[in-house]
Amino acid sequence: MRYFRAVVIPDDEGLHPIDRAFARAPDVTRQLLHNVNLLEDGTAMTMYQLSGDVDTIRDICDSPDVYEYHLAEGPDSVTLYAHFEPTETIAELLSLFQHHQLILDTPLEYTERGGLRVLVIGTEETIRSIMPEIPDEVTLKLERLGDYEPEADRLYSMLTPRQQETLQAALEVGYYQVPREATHEDIARELGLTGGTVGEHLRKIEATVLSAITPR
């Protein structure tokens, strides 16, 4: 099996009215999208992981495009289950994945710039064939294409969204090349962070991964 990892960047209308509203709300942060399914009747179901003001989240969900929703408040996040009317763009995108029997590896992660990082699993032929069929309203920024390795993906999923983004930026600027091509400050400029914060994230990443692969 093969996979591709990409960042989905919707146009100004967003993937859905409530998703666009979450993106614009100053007191709400989209963290993860745990699931999204297109149902036989053309409606869709999704499960978000959010943080921020619960009243704002509830106000956004009180939309005519949302048929039903439930909120579960945790200590650090809010889980939203929603049954909604998808836009033509998201319905077309989900139908494309279903038609070609591709698997969306969840959870999907929101980037700092508002894109949605996805990992899609399928045969190489199928993956290549869908690229021209991606809706024009969506930009797909391909990050990686390779053999799907569940163990590597499990390790990656052990990192927090912020750690994953830091690791991606470190790889892109050459921090882990030999010889090293970038510093903490180079990564920090990519992410809008301080060099000290980047260094802390990288130490936690390395501790998590090394602890997981070292025999005990």
TrEMBL record:
Keyword Transcription regulation part of the UniProt annotation? yes
Identify the keywords attached in UniProt to this record, alphabetized. Answer: Transcription, Transcription regulation
| Top-level taxon in the UniProt lineage | Archaea
The opening ranks of the lineage are: Archaea, Methanobacteriati, Methanobacteriota, Stenosarchaea group, Halobacteria
UniProt key word Oxidoreductase = no
Q: Which Pfam families match?
A: HTH_10, HVO_0513_N
Instruction: Domain (HTH bat-type): give its ranges.
Output: 159-210
Name it: Helix-turn-helix domain-containing protein
Q: Where is the HVO-0513-like N-terminal domain?
A: 16-148
**Alphabetized Gene3D superfamilies for the sequence:** Winged helix-like DNA-binding domain superfamily/Winged helix DNA-binding domain
